[in-house]
Amino acid sequence: MTRRLAQVAKKVGVSEATVSRVLNGKPGVSDSTRQAVLSALDVLGYERPTQLRGERARLVGLVLPELQNPIFPAFAEVIGGALAQLGLTPVLCTQTKGGVSEADYVELLLQQQVSGVVFAGGLYAQADAPHEHYRELADRNIPVVLVNAAIEHLGFPCVSCDDAVAVEQAWRHLVSLGHERIGLVLGPADHMPSARKLAAARALAPELPDAHIARSMFSIEGGHAAAARLIDRGVTGFICASDPLALGVVRAARRKGLGVPSQVSVVGYDDSALMNCTEPPLTTVRQPIESMGRAAVELLNAQIGGSSVTAEELLFEPELVVRGSTAQAPRS
């Protein structure tokens, strides 16, 4: 008990006597200090006293699929900062291969009595993935917000970048440069944002051949493998579902002795960190991360405050950022 008091007191920056008053439900402690002590208990992994377990923690889970793709740390920074401004403490949960699963993180967050959960790039975007943990959150009335396209019928509010507009911007840019053989490098077939991008491309170009569509895991290596196939089929303009995929396309082109952008043009998606520092600087479609992240926190905070929030999707407009990875199509 003494060790617990000392650790919590140090974490919050108050005396052990103050921590003791909070744990024993005694008066003389401000609401902000009381909440800080309870949050510190949760963060340090201590159980709350029995009489305080009915109160939900001022913690919010922020569940990400990875940190290697720079777009996810960017979202974490915006969302975490917005939560902190509201007096909520973000708990970052990042999946690793062979490590803790998304469902495991949800169980841990429920044990900590979190106030809500924000998911960015989770299993909710994959039609063939398990979704039971989302239903458990809904059954317990835990406030949840999803970032970017989700499968139907989950019943949570969602903030998304408009995939159709993103593809239209990239497609028209490549066409304006004279590219006639345009290919797509997308995520898996059950990935909802990729499915939306493909639907948008087919609406723009109904004659788009299946041979100009490649699917891959979201990584540089995956982009390289997918692009190698499309380059052999004569594709000169690439629209990719992420910036790492686009960097893989650039690498594949160079391995085949082709210049970027003199012979192959590449458009990414996200405009994540350092894409203006690559060689060549990457043309990409920018997600409005700041606006999307703040909107997600506003929706979550409204639910935490007891307001009714409809399970609708807010679509945000992307922006094409033209840099050095796109140029006039090579002459036949």
TrEMBL record:
Signal peptide stretch: none
SUPFAM superfamilies from the UniProt entry: lambda repressor-like DNA-binding domains, Periplasmic binding protein-like I
Keyword annotations from UniProtKB, A to Z: DNA-binding, Transcription, Transcription regulation
Keyword Transcription regulation: yes
Top-level taxon: Bacteria
UniProt-listed Pfam families: LacI, Peripla_BP_3
InterPro entries: HTH_LacI, LacI/GalR-like_sensor, Lambda_DNA-bd_dom_sf, Peripla_BP_I
Keyword Transcription regulation in annotation: yes
Domain HTH lacI-type: start-end pairs: 3-57
Membrane-spanning segments: none
Recorded GO MF terms: DNA-binding transcription factor activity; transcription cis-regulatory region binding
PANTHER family listed in its UniProt record: LACI-RELATED TRANSCRIPTIONAL REPRESSOR, LACTOSE OPERON REPRESSOR
Protein name, entry field: LacI family transcriptional regulator
